[in-house]
């Protein structure tokens, strides 16, 4: 394993970038059009993590309402087109992300994104944030026939980046990411500043980092641990 190329896979929303402001403005525009109450950002941010359709459903449920599947389809199309037009208006990288990605790249790691956003939105956003070029693979919910928490979304992302699961790590912010990594047998580092209804400290990741400056040491420690277990 020591001569295998190491791969590090990142979740996007709530992990690499604080996307909540643009996602929740979009959600609130739709809720307003439907005559529903808008949700404050602080309350709505933790509804993110299972894709835009789930976000819409959860936003409507927070109003004590449900929506017929056919109407949800329409609202979802509308959500996607509004969001595409404001994908990086207020969205910012979390502190230290760009420097951390550069460090892993320079050290020869393969980098990938595994997100429940659509692939074209993910590429559009990562380009707007100036970091798309770092990744060997950017895999969204529609890249494969499977999406998180199905572990194949993660293992196929690792393969698309040219890596192998035995020499891979995942970095994420939610229960979905941690469950996906566990099911794939891939060690997982969690960030506590993303979007999750349950604090990541209660979800059993291998390591929690408070800032991206701590990612290098956390990844090196986990990678060494799994290499030793393998050898
Ligand atoms: O858009 C979402 O709801 C989830 O996206 P993520 O998988 O990058 O957190
Ligand atoms: Mg996330």
TrEMBL record:
SUPFAM superfamilies: HAD-like. Mg(2+) binds at residues 11, 13, 173. It catalyses: 2-phosphoglycolate + H2O = glycolate + phosphate. GO terms for molecular function: metal ion binding; phosphoglycolate phosphatase activity. Its cofactor is Mg(2+). It is an enzyme of class 3 (hydrolase). GO terms for cellular component: cytosol. InterPro entries: HAD-like_hydrolase_sf (IPR050155), HAD-like_sf (IPR036412), HAD-SF_hydro_IA (IPR006439), HAD_2 (IPR041492), HAD_sf (IPR023214), PGP-like_dom2 (IPR023198), PGPase_prok (IPR037512). Pathway: Organic acid metabolism; glycolate biosynthesis; glycolate from 2-phosphoglycolate: step 1/1. The active site is at 11 (nucleophile). Pfam families: HAD_2. GO terms for biological process: carbohydrate metabolic process; DNA repair; glycolate biosynthetic process. Keywords: Carbohydrate metabolism, Hydrolase, Magnesium, Metal-binding. Its EC number is 3.1.3.18. NCBIfam families: HAD-SF-IA-v1. Specifically catalyzes the dephosphorylation of 2-phosphoglycolate. Is involved in the dissimilation of the intracellular 2-phosphoglycolate formed during the DNA repair of 3'-phosphoglycolate ends, a major class of DNA lesions induced by oxidative stress. Belongs to the HAD-like hydrolase superfamily. CbbY/CbbZ/Gph/YieH family. This is Phosphoglycolate phosphatase. It comes from Chelatococcus daeguensis. The lineage of its organism: Bacteria, Pseudomonadati, Pseudomonadota, Alphaproteobacteria, Hyphomicrobiales.
